[in-house]
């Protein structure tokens, strides 16, 4: 375990020595891009599922009390345009 001097401690935010993984560092950007894209797609998947569930209804029970309107679509549209 390397020893940290006082000068190093003033410049560092995390004072706990963390070992560097050289193999992971080269692929970290690629992995984070894929993970963020997957989370973005998963968020849209859940939203589309909620839209479908809110619009579908059982004829015996009538329409569901929750509905998804255009106002609910605006954050998703803006984040999609921001992602592009």
UniProtKB/TrEMBL annotation:
Highest taxon in the source lineage: Eukaryota
UniProt subcellular location: Membrane
The keyword Membrane belongs to this UniProt entry's keyword annotation: yes
Ranges that cross the membrane: 31-48
Topology versus the membrane: Multi-pass membrane protein
Chief location bin: membrane
GO CC annotations, alphabetized: membrane
Pfam families named in the record: UPF0220
Methyltransferase recorded as keyword: no
Keywords: Membrane, Transmembrane, Transmembrane helix
Family: Belongs to the UPF0220 family.
Protein name (database record): Uncharacterized protein
Native species: Entomortierella chlamydospora
């Amino acid at each position: 375990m390397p020893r940290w001097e006082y000068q190093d401690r003033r410049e560092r935010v995390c004072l706990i020595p963390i070992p560097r993984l050289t193999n992971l560092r080269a692929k970290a950007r690629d992995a984070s891009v894929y993970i963020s894209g997957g989370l973005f797609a998963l968020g849209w998947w859940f939203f589309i599922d909620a839209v479908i569930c809110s619009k579908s209804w059982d004829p015996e029970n009538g329409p569901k009390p929750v509905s998804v309107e255009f106002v609910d679509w605006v954050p998703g549209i803006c984040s999609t345009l921001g992602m592009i």
